[in-house]
Automatic annotation (TrEMBL), chain A:
The keyword Nucleotide-binding applies. Keywords: Nucleotide-binding. The keyword Lipid metabolism does not apply. SUPFAM superfamilies: P-loop containing nucleoside triphosphate hydrolases (SSF52540). It comes from Thrips palmi. GO terms for molecular function: GTP binding; GTPase activity. The lineage of its organism: Eukaryota, Metazoa, Ecdysozoa, Arthropoda, Hexapoda. It comes from the Eukaryota. Belongs to the small GTPase superfamily. Rab family. This is Vacuolar protein sorting-associated protein 21.
UniProtKB/TrEMBL annotation, chain B:
One of its GO terms (cellular component) is Mon1-Ccz1 complex. This is Vacuolar fusion protein MON1 homolog. Belongs to the MON1/SAND family. Residues 88-100 have a biased composition (Low complexity). It holds the Pfam family Fuz_longin_2. Residues 122-243 form the FUZ/MON1/HPS1 first Longin domain.
């Protein structure tokens, strides 16, 4: 089985729900007591997509301003970025634009960009229009998702999209920072024993608003 | 009623009447003085009060951080020392893109007239030298603009003549000021603490700010913009300051400038230390490995030549205690240790040992690329500790409720604190009645503060102090090796008090190797 190892960095303002998203995806739970991230937290997860296993190294960064200057350490050599904002706080959307500029300036290799509007459960307090966010995502060559970590809406699609994007990057010879190998040479025996996670099928599920983008991604690979 | 019994020294020191003393030579009670201590030995109020103390270890080299890197013949990489130049360089003006919010002048009277706000025992305010609010312990700093203005005016008015305002004394209220470069700290308190003690506390708060920003960043920000609103950069760090102030109010550790160790059988502690050393010794640039649990030190291993100052260790403990997020995943975070090097950040790999073991391991390095080697080392450490059943030993030590003073067979003594000066560590029994309540614990700590202040009074330090009060009799004793603070029944006789002190010292001496870390392991 072909295995790809990639790095994904989660960026965005303080309190938009970055950690809640990652913990929801990896830990399959939501906690109201998640406290602000200090520096960055590191997680790993695996996604199987058809004949490829994608190992993700997830760097969940802290949104507090004082860690801003440390960001290059966390996004360096990243293959994908989740740019998370809170749909009820317009300034968190504005902040994403600075992140994108910074990434464009400092990351040379191509990157999968996912723009994520979180907290859709608070839709009646929405300040960022879906259309505006969508257009911005297209303008930076990324994909727009809307999620609710609280209600477990749209989270899997975000990670799946990044994994699929990385598979595509790996087929591009320009990309040197992704580690690609055949599990027959380096795999650990446990890898074979693991049941294939049912993640590919999750895409088929109708998860509402993000489905449009989802299908497009799948269609092009 | 207080009596200072200098003549009693003889009985305690046993120097002049060796042999004659019923308890024999008391000098035997002096703690074992290790050749080297892992923590910098502290005397109280050491160097804290001066700006940039001429610490001998700092004189040799310009920067500890740079030296750790040189250690392995690496060239000093300035990028690593300066977060702002690593990769994306961001100027301060960029940092402050968001326009500074206009502050709310309404409602200030609402706050300052509020009975609850006015009756707080201790207020701490931080402001920039331009008078911009940075932090207030009680009440939102936004709402106190006028008050901050008054403080700024006061400080600069006195500063105009080249003087420095230190304190204002009114009936029942003490105002203490600390000016640190571009920021100033003020404390308004109705407690019975001394100016020196409050100054130490303000210094701790200041070092907490330096710890999250570095002195370099702090200085540069205000050089570029005198009017900068520091709250932007400190957002989220207020909880560290709050937590630090609570610790200062409730824990003797910061008063004593010492840390408490998790009591362990010496061979157990050595085994834990050896596992950490053997799992890390191939990693270059690792400066400190610190294992803490329940606000106590389990072990500390350091790079040769470098020592950790207890004040820096307190900042680390404060970070761990106030950051729940470390429990969820491995973290990789910058931290500045001002006594080690105020100019730059160290990088810390922080993780709890295991789901079933609430001890937190911190691996501190100067190398920003070391996350994965450290992560691997951590896994090895945990595996080895588990195999040797040492996780269990740590767990049972953490679960131990602590030793009550009654177990020592010293009925006259209600509580005591013993500080070993050479190792900057202390030990005390778990509070028993009447100190087990929050109120009782507070009164006890107040009593220790009074003793501590009198013994360390800058003008006239004392060796021995015996204070009889209606609630308790307090005894404080400072020797070259240790400091002892004891709370007795109010009606204890001096002879009984002396006997009790001897028993306490004998007990400590017997258990010294389990209560304190007496060696100084290195990588
Ligand atoms: N209603 C709602 N609240 C959410 C959602 N996701 C996160 N939150 C809440 O938002 C707050 C911040 O969540 P975190 O996950 O800590 O945010 P973060 O982006 O990791 O914050 P930093 O680590 O400080 O950068 C918490 O109180 C969460 O419970 C969501 O989808 N809906
Ligand atoms: Mg977070």
């Amino acid at each position: 089985m072909r295995t790809i190892e990639g790095k994904i960095v989660v960026l965005g303002s303080q309190g938009v729900g970055k950690t809640s998203m990652v913990v929801r995806y990896i830990g399959k739970m939501f906690s109201h007591h998640i406290s602000p991230t200090i520096g960055a937290s590191f997680f790993t997860c695996k996604i199987n997509i058809d004949e490829t296993r994608v190992k993700l190294q997830v760097w969940d960064t802290a949104g507090q301003e004082r860690f801003r200057s440390m960001a290059p350490m966390y996004y360096r050599n990243a293959n994908a970025a989740l740019l998370v904002f809170d749909i009820t706080q317009y300034h968190t959307f504005t902040a994403i634009k600075n992140w994108v500029k910074e990434l464009q300036r400092n990351v040379e290799e191509p990157m999968v960009l996912a723009l994520v509007g979180n907290k859709t459960d608070l839709v009646n307090q929405r300040k960022v229009l879906r259309e505006e966010a969508h257009q911005y995502a297209v303008s930076i060559g990324g994909t727009y998702f809307e999620t609710s970590a609280l209600q477990d809406e749209g989270i899997e699609e975000v990670f799946l999209n990044s994994a699929i994007g990385m598979i595509k990057l790996s087929e591009d010879s320009q990309c040197t920072s992704l580690r690609v190998y055949d599990s027959s040479d380096t795999s650990s025996p446990t890898a074979i024993l693991q049941p294939p996670p049912p993640l590919t099928s999750a895409v088929q599920l109708d998860k509402g608003p993000t489905q449009g983008e989802q299908e497009r991604v799948l269609a092009c690979c | 009623m207080a009596t200072t019994k200098t003549d009693e020294d003889v009985d305690f020191k046993g120097e002049n009447d060796e042999g004659k003393h019923p308890e024999g030579n008391l000098l035997n009670f002096e703690p074992e003085v290790p050749v080297e201590s892992m923590l910098v030995p502290t005397d109280n109020f050491d160097s804290f009060e001066q700006e940039a103390p001429p610490d001998p270890s700092n004189l040799k080299v310009d920067s500890n951080l740079a030296e750790c890197q040189n250690n392995d013949n690496n060239t000093v990489d300035d990028d690593k020392l300066d977060p702002d130049t690593s990769g994306a360089s961001r100027s301060i003006s960029e940092l402050s893109l968001a326009s500074e919010e206009s502050t709310d002048h309404h409602g200030e009277e609402e706050v300052t007239n509020n009975e609850e706000w006015r009756s707080q025992e201790k207020h701490v305010f931080i402001l920039s030298s331009a008078g911009k609010p940075i932090y207030s312990r009680h009440g939102s700093e936004d709402k106190l603009v006028t008050l901050f203005g008054v403080m700024q005016a006061l400080v600069s008015f006195i500063g105009d003549d080249g003087d420095v305002i230190r304190s204002i004394h009114t009936q029942g209220t003490l105002f203490v000021f600390l000016i640190k470069g571009p920021i100033m700290l003020a404390c308004v308190c109705k407690t019975r603490e001394s100016v020196a003690q409050i100054t130490v506390q303000l210094n701790y708060v200041y070092s907490q700010i330096v710890s999250v920003l570095t002195l370099q960043q702090l200085t540069r920000i205000y050089e570029q913009r005198r009017n900068y609103d520091l709250r932007r950069l400190l957002a989220g760090a207020e909880r560290l300051i709050d937590h630090m102030l609570i610790a200062l109010e409730t824990q003797p550790a910061l008063l004593l400038g010492a840390v408490q160790c998790l009591p362990l059988v010496p061979t157990t502690r050595d085994a834990i230390t050896n596992i950490i050393v053997s799992s890390c010794n191939k990693i270059k640039n690792l400066v400190f490995a610190i294992l803490v649990g329940g606000n106590q030190l389990v072990t500390l291993i350091r790079m040769k030549k470098f020592f950790l100052h207890p004040a820096d260790l307190h900042l680390i403990l404060n970070l761990v205690n106030s950051s729940e997020s470390f429990k969820a995943a491995e973290s990789w975070t910058p931290i500045c240790l001002p006594k080690f090097d105020p100019k730059g950040f160290l990088h810390a790999h922080v993780s709890y040992l295991a789901e079933d073991c609430e001890a937190c391991l911190l691996l501190l390095t100067v190398d920003a690329d070391l996350f994965f080697p450290l992560s691997e080392a951590k896994q090895k450490i945990v595996e080895k500790l588990r195999r040797a059943s040492l996780l269990q030993s740590i767990n049972s030590a953490l679960a131990h409720p602590g030793t009550p003073v009654s177990q020592l067979g010293v009925p006259e003594a209600r509580h005591f604190l013993y500080k070993c000066k050479a190792t900057a560590q202390f030990w005390g029994p778990v509070p028993a009645p009447p100190y087990q309540t929050a109120e009782g614990a507070k009164r006890l700590l107040d009593q220790y503060r009074i003793l501590h202040h009198r013994l360390h009074a800058p003008m006239q330090p004392l060796k021995l102090l015996y204070l009889q009060d209606h609630a308790e009799t307090m005894l404080g004793w400072v020797t070259t090796g240790f400091e002892l603070y004891v709370a007795f029944e109010p009606l204890v006789t001096k002879t009984n008090a002396i006997n009790a002190v001897n028993k306490i010292l004998r007990w400590i001496k017997k258990d010294e190797n389990g209560l304190f870390i007496t060696n100084a392991p290195t990588f």
